[in-house]
């Protein structure tokens, strides 16, 4: 019987600075067997643990086809993530997971994929994009629309550049507080919808970012003819156990940790729009 | 098996049952009077039980009284249900020690202990069944819960007296214990009617070589239980749930109840079904060892819905609505059953006497400002 509470030590083998308060940590399990066994789906998350401090739910950024890499991009915003920020390669974190439902990449096969992200919301879809590009012929056009507040918040610049060079792929970036160096669009991410052609009959949308972006963005997509059932969102809630037991992450009838974090929009829309749910 | 075998034990001989349980290796736990209320304690003798005591419960009020009778089970229930025996208020999860590879985490499982609880009520059994559904029947079987559950032997007592706060009849969970017990007793005057509900219970009855119960005693016990059900004054109108409660999301009553609720968490602590918990990390001073334990948590706390920089449910209104909507509506979507067993503890132990039946009735009878609809039961 698997004990889902057991934490597995993992060494930080690389720490990549993404922004002033954001780093990507490449982890390797101390136990070689664990390293070989660990499989995940794009969009799933791990509980990441700091010795003596506690744990926090963080989505997996790396490619599910390369399970030898386990990457987490983490912004230092709270007690635990600030403790993580102080760690260096060679230090040890703890990991338990993977938990939750990932992106519907099987269902997306044969269809065009529109990926809409805001801020650090791009992290949970990186694995999905890599997954699609490994099977490029099996998917239709790919459109990646990403919005940041300031140019300083733009992570994964090289990845975006590489994706832009892929066949039948568009990458559109926008910033609503740009500086002089910004070469891309100016405004909020939903404005990018107007700049891409979308065939609503064969498009699936993956959305991740602040909930306000989802609530404002999806109606615009619907006006473009996209059904609510073709939109998937990745949600963020207080998660402590990862397995639907601790009760914190409830959203209406759902436990975001096990029914999500990726959920079909039409199923969660009534609750996303309600204050205090 | 329930109802097949009825045996009778003179109340004066109850010690025989306690002794038999001890002989089987059980630590026997029963209701005892402490600090003005009834709590579970280890007992050795029948005289440890609250003989001659009665409890009176009203919204925000709990009082014990001595009646001078010889009734053994005159007290219906105290603040505790069976929950603490299986879902411990504080449960060690892991011991984590620094080592060469950084650290090593060792799971801490509870030591297996055989506990026989005497005096559980039908509502408590219903609460236990819900907790079983939550902790044992999902993709992850909770090992701590399972270990505690394994060693639990439950001797229920059918209620022949209702409290003003009881509503088990309308929730169809009591007052007659139907399933989920090893033995069930009904106290009729100076006799205890005993029925077995499990193999272990039957075995124990067989060992005690008790006389079969006379039809008259069985009928009389049934009449007492029936009368108890009919005497309940509170009920929940649950036929329209969960949709009606979802529809009441913008109802002005939530503001009203938020003005009274202290967010003290009492209702969730005494609830037999509430399962929220949090994890506490306690490193030692040298930072060489640390332990993780899970503790009961409550959706009434500030931290419950906190994510970095934001509280999902910042006001007491949000949190009371979360609690009642979860208990009576989304619980049904999540687990296919209501989260309320009708024990009435949340009414009694609320310091300001908030009564969920009254709140639900107000939310469902007067007009709601909301017209939103929601999909149901689509949890994956």
Shape of chain B: globular
Work out the radius of gyration of chain B: 22 Å
Strand percentage of chain B: 15-25%
Strand order of the largest sheet of chain B: 3-2-8-9-10-11-1-12
Task: Give unreliable regions of chain B as ranges.
Answer: 368-380
Round the Cα radius of gyration of chain A to an integer and report it. 18 Å
Count the DSSP helices of chain A: 7
Main beta sheet of chain B? 8 strands, mixed
Intertermini distance of chain B: 35 Å
Order of helices and strands of chain A: EEHEEEHEEHEHEEEHEEEHEH
- Care to count the β-strands of chain B? 16
Query: Looking at the chains present, what oligomeric state does this protein adopt?
Result: heterodimer
Strand order of the largest sheet of chain A: 10-9-8-7-11-12-15
| Helical content class of chain A | 10-25%
| Element-by-element helix/strand order of chain B | EHEEEEHEEEHHEHEEHEHHHHEEEEHHH
Pairing-aware structural class of the strands and helices of chain B?
Answer: alpha+beta
Strand content of chain A: 25-35%
The whole-number mean of residue pLDDT values of chain A reads: 95
Sum up the overall morphology of chain A in one term: globular
Largest sheet of chain A: 7 strands, mixed
Report on this model:
By secondary structure, chain A is of the alpha/beta class. Chain A has helices at 32-37, 79-85, 123-134, 157-164, 211-223, 256-259, 265-272, and strands at residues 8-19, 22-29, 45-50, 54-59, 70-75, 92-99, 112-118, 142-148, 169-175, 185-186, 203-208, 231-234, 250-251, 254-255, 262-264. Chain B has 380 residues and is α+β, with helices and mostly antiparallel strands. In chain B, α9 packs across α11 (316-335). Residues 368-380 of chain B have low confidence and may be disordered.
Task: Give a summary of the structure in a few sentences.
The complex is a heterodimer of chains A (277) and B (380). Chain A has 277 residues and is of the alpha/beta class.
